[in-house]
Amino acid sequence: MLSEVFDIALFGAMFRMATPIILAALGGAICAQAGVFNMALEGFMLVGAFCAVVGTFYFDSIAAGLALALIGSGLLALVFSFAVLKMRSHTIVLGTALNLLATGATQYLIGRMYDSGYYRGMQLAGLPNIDLPLISQIPVLSEILSGHSIIVYLSWVLPLFASLLLYRQVLGLRIRAVGENPEAATTLGISVPKVRFVAIMLSGVLCGLAGAQLSMSNVRLFVEDMTAGRGFIALVAVLFARERPLGVLGASLLFGLTDALSLRLQAARVAPQFIMMIPYLATLVALFATRGRVAALVGEGTRETEEAEKKSG
Question: Global pTM?
Fold first, then answer.
């Protein structure tokens, strides 16, 4: 039984399952660095997954599906940024509302468009798998590192670019300054709302890619609530890594491994109730380990909202 579960293919599946979490967690990390606790990652991903399938089906183009995924999640991020930056909404309440909105809207639309709670067209083209040169010729590494979609490969390099952005570029330094001390950043001439707007929109784009990977590569279909809590797992990865992009990569791979392990255990005929618990048990353990950081981020958002209300009142 162990040989059926723990083999080389398990680690290849780990990268595929971790990719949506990596991308969403990167978006959450950038927002957290800017002082915004983005609870709407789940909704962003779900809208991206839905739009990727719809765009690919109606335009018969994978590129159109990807573009529509970015647009859909970007529009939801625009709503989130308006409510947070202009209306001074509480990020926890707002994020929960947008997650419920995304769930309800996609359920309604998929039912109206395809008369069911899912869409799986045999003619639906998914993201093609790419064999890496040289790597594909190496027996063990080829099974782990080669034969993935372009979004999987992007998820390996984007954490590095995000790290360079946050710690080596002017925009990244402004994002961190706004997150650490918005009052001091304002005195230096930095527009706090504009910087936070950029951070939120970046998270929307990354979640759009995450949703597209989920519905157009991991599987080639859309079902109701198919993100299955991955946005919340991404939030825990952000907290576990203390908002550091490279740490996010490591934490997300750990969660991706538990997700892949649950699928392999299902094939080994382990009780399905136990299998479904594995990724979420790992998430709970990580959440308990980072409970202090959760309180700090939520407290910062609450304090800023209260201060804004006092000024406006």
Answer: 0.88
